[in-house]
Write a structure and sequence with these properties.
Strand content: 25-35%
Oligomer: single chain
Strand order of the largest sheet: 2-3-1-4
CATH topology: Alpha-Beta Plaits
Number of strands: 4
CATH architecture: 2-Layer Sandwich
Number of domains: 1
Order of helices and strands: EHEEHHE
Radius of gyration: 13 Å
Structural class: alpha+beta
Distance between the termini: 11 Å
Largest sheet: 4 strands, antiparallel
CATH class: Alpha Beta
Length: about 90
C-alpha cells in the first residue's frame, strides 16, 4: 500500500468548501483507492489517499490529473504531492 498526500495552505473557508467538493465527487473515486481523509490544522491541509498498491497509483497518475489536486485547485490552492509507503492499514 501507498499513501498519496496532497498538501496546501487553506483558510477555514477554503477547507470547508473542499469538504463539500470531496463529498460531491466521492462516487468518482478511482479504483484502487481504499480510503481518503482530509486533515486540517491551523491552515495546513492534507488530503491523504491510501492506495491498494503503487502500480495502481502510477497508472492513475500517468493517465490524469489527480482528483485531490483538482479539488484543491478549485478552492484556490496549488498542492504539493508526496508518496509515502503504508506499513499498516485497517
Amino acid at each position: 500500500m501507498i499513501a498519496a498526500i496532497f498538501e496546501a495552505q487553506l483558510t477555514e473557508e477554503q477547507a470547508h468548501r473542499l469538504v463539500e467538493l470531496m463529498r460531491e465527487t466521492r462516487a468518482a473515486r478511482p479504483d484502487g483507492v481504499l480510503n481518503v481523509s482530509l486533515l486540517y490544522e491551523r491552515g495546513a491541509a492534507q488530503i491523504v489517499a491510501i492506495w491498494r498498491d503503487r502500480a495502481d497509483l502510477d497508472r492513475y497518475l500517468a493517465s490524469s490529473t489527480p482528483r485531490a489536486k483538482e479539488l484543491m485547485r478549485r478552492v484556490g490552492a496549488e498542492p504539493t504531492i508526496r508518496l509515502v509507503p503504508v506499513l499498516e492499514h485497517e
